[in-house]
Input
Amino acid sequence: MKYSCRLPAKEVKLILILDLMKWYRIKALIIRHLYLYPRSFPRIMDVLFWPVLELLVWGFLSAYLEKLNLENINLVSILLGAIIFWTFLNRSQEAVTVAFLEDVWEKNLLNLFVTPIRISEFLFSTVILGLVRIVTAGAILGVIALVLYHFSIFQFGIYTVPFILSLLLFGWILGLFITAVILRFGTSAQVLAFGFIFLIQPFSAVFYPVSALPVAVQGIAYLLPSTYVFEGMRAVIATGTLPLNYLAFSFGINAMYLIIVLFFFYAMFRKVKERGLLLKLD
Output
């Protein structure tokens, strides 16, 4: 192909690049990814499921706000409190799973488990690391909310600590569960590390009360310890007091799930070792 010498050098370079690009190669690259989707449930969830859940969350919120008399409620405190507490839950889950995935991505997992390190030590170290990251993120969010919106997370008084502890514990439980799934099914399931938490968001009553949910799914909400924290947060804002049964249910359900998840994690790890799947993770 001949190009006019009158064209600027940049335009000539662009034409050369476009001439070298072939559509059949581009199409092949696209198709190789599309072939994976019908056989990959995590990829389908990433494209279809999570956007639907986000729509449900904000749809329920809109329906709830439409019924409210906003003159008699501190909407800013409810929304900012919900966002900050949700961040604690979200980041505590990600802290555990991402710490595990980083070893997988760096091909360091096998090196760790040929040493005398115990599984419990490995898990505990990720929890501590996650706690440091969460405290840092929480402090930043708290300062921003105080400066921009005059909202203090400590307005919940003595309930701030048990609220946060319950959410952190539930986040770690979810993190252990997801880590066990990734151990068993490999890195094809790693999308769950960043998306699974949003599966429970519509049912945790983060931005609206359980009563705003359809009656058919309210039972699911009461199976989640996070629901009692967010319901309790709204109760403190509205009345200044918290029904203690909210905290009791939250920590009780967390304790039950922690026992189940620990058994599940050790069972998955034992199966992975028996089948030699640890190498495939790397």
